[in-house]
Amino acid sequence: MRQRISFFLISLFLILATYSVYNKVLSYGFINLDDDDFITENRHVQNGLTKENIIWAFTTGKGGNWNPVTWLSHIVDGHLYGLNPGGHHLSNLLLHILNTLLLFYLLVLMTKTTWTSALVALFFALHPLHVESVAWVAERKDVLSTFFWLLTIGAYFFYTKRRYAMAYLSSLFFFCLGLMAKPMLVTLPVLLLLFDYWPLYRWGYQENSALDTLGLSSKKNFQKCSLLTLLLEKAPFFGVSFFWCFLTFSMQKNAGAVSSLNSLPLTSRLLNALLSYNMYLWKTLWPRSLAILYPFRGHFPLWQIAFSFFLLAWVSFIAFFTMKKHPYFLVGWLWYLISLIPVIGLIQVGLQSMADRYTYVPIIGIFIMIAWGLKDIALKGRSYQLLCSLLVGGLFIFWANSTRHQIGYWKSSITLFEHALKVTENNFLAHNNLGVALASEGRLDAAIWQYKKVLEIDPEKLRAHNNLGVAYTKKGDLDIAKVYYLEAVRLKPDYAKAHFNLGVILAEQGNYEEAITYHQEVVNLDPKNEGAHYHLGRLHFSFGHREKAIFHYKEALKINPQSTFLQNCLSEAIVKKDT
């Protein structure tokens, strides 16, 4: 009974502690990086749960990934909250709290250790590196995929206890759902093998696994298994992982998200991966200077390379040397190393050298090493218990305060990207998105300054050229805007957004035929561009080309059938045609 009360009180404390640290996000808005594509400018999400949107969630490859479960969660939020950002933030926070509780429950079930498991869950709940995954609405895929990842492990644990086929199939089902939320989970089959080693002790041991401390079962029927048997047991999981790796790589390559070896040599990727492993460790222990994007480093100091290599080699040696006496150390360390492999940069996707959000699952392994290590130290005597208690209290206060402080930067796009510029160098994305945020407030001159800083870092950044064009258009300097749009088109002839903006200002300047040419090019590049179809309809209508105007209005309505404005435009064109 006392154990159940402790279990309940710990759970309650985890909920209250997590909410009290993160509750500020409920009053925050969306940011202008990915939140626009995922929510504020995504009509499927805004229109909520409809048959069309559910089908879209399972058929879209937007962003170079197939994440139907994540899209469905955003669509549900759109249905419930519309464009109220507080609701979307609440969903992220609730999922993070659920993940914290699930992690606690699973560790208790598997290790028969309540307080040590609670310590891991507390570190997970409050660590500053997790702010990005929770406070960024577009990163729903982190907290959602981890939810299914934990359910996968839970179902697998019950399979190993009872050998029920339904538990095994449930584990495989949850694994597939997790991958449909975020493909980073592809390393999970290897982690299941690690769990077989510790804490389940299935690798050639005749030892009983952790008992169900909640009293659900007292069955002790674990059999020792050979590595081959355990691998065959995971074969369906590995099969699903390999398929998802192929699917994700193909989609991201087709979307242009994967950097080629010509643009980013393999040597640079390997060195960046080595340094990133070290930086993630450092930021785990000392979470300062966190940013939404860390630009890829152009050079790698020799001393950093050497230090990173020897640190990883030294910890790995210790982990394997002490594996029999302290199996948790090896499992936690390999958990960290292996679960980071899909995002460590060997296959470079995106602009970042590393990202805080990538640690959401991997640093659980580090927390296990710390928590069980402190437990072993505390067993040496009262003085050691006092020392460990002070260390735990210090880590809790330090990390909780750091998290609360870090959350404050997510209040708006301006505060977020201003902070990123303070703690990073040559961060062109932060300059660009800060410019977008300033422009949205009408601070055009400040925005233009930020965009020009982007071009100082890289003169061929397309978005900066396009955004300068937009800013000068708003200022009424159409000729200057035209120069930047034309430069964007020169750098990337299939850049539909620049073609569209050129068409708009050419129409404003009275160059209607040239404007039609550019808008037609947009439609050729992006047949589902509602705005281009509308402008073509309007321009053709002004020239008296009624049939073409009707065609383009109808195409626009196919894309956005609920638009009463487009319906009125189409009706007007049809009436004029008939008269």
Q: Which oligomeric form is depicted?
A: single chain
Total helices: the number is: 28
Shape: elongated
How many domains? The number is 2
Low-confidence sequence ranges: 205-221
The secondary structure category is mainly alpha
**Beta fraction:** under 5%
- How many angstroms separate the termini? 85 Å
Q: Encode the helix/strand succession as letters.
A: HHHHHHHHHHHHHHEHHEHHHHHHHHHHHH
As laid out across the biggest beta sheet, the strand order is 1-2
The helicity comes to over 70%
Tell me the major beta sheet: 2 strands, antiparallel
User: What is the typical, i.e. mean, pLDDT?
Assistant: 91
**Total strands:** 2
Radius of gyration, whole Å = 27 Å
What characteristics describe this protein?
28 helices, Serine Threonine Protein Phosphatase 5, Tetratricopeptide repeat, 579 residues, mainly alpha, two-stranded antiparallel ribbon, single chain
Topology:
Layout (H helix, E strand, L loop, with lengths): L1 H21 L12 H6 L2 H4 L4 H9 L8 H14 L3 H27 L2 H13 L4 H5 L4 H23 L2 H15 L8 H10 L29 H7 L1 H20 L11 H20 L8 E2 L6 H20 L5 H13 L12 E3 L8 H16 L3 H27 L4 H11 L4 H13 L3 H14 L4 H14 L2 H14 L4 H13 L3 H14 L4 H14 L2 H14 L4 H15 L1
Antiparallel strand pairs: 1-2
Helix pairs in contact: 1-6, 1-7, 4-5, 5-6, 5-9, 6-7, 6-9, 7-17, 7-18, 9-10, 10-13, 11-16, 14-15, 15-16, 16-17, 17-18, 19-20, 20-21, 20-22, 21-22, 22-23, 22-24, 23-24, 24-25, 25-26, 26-27, 27-28
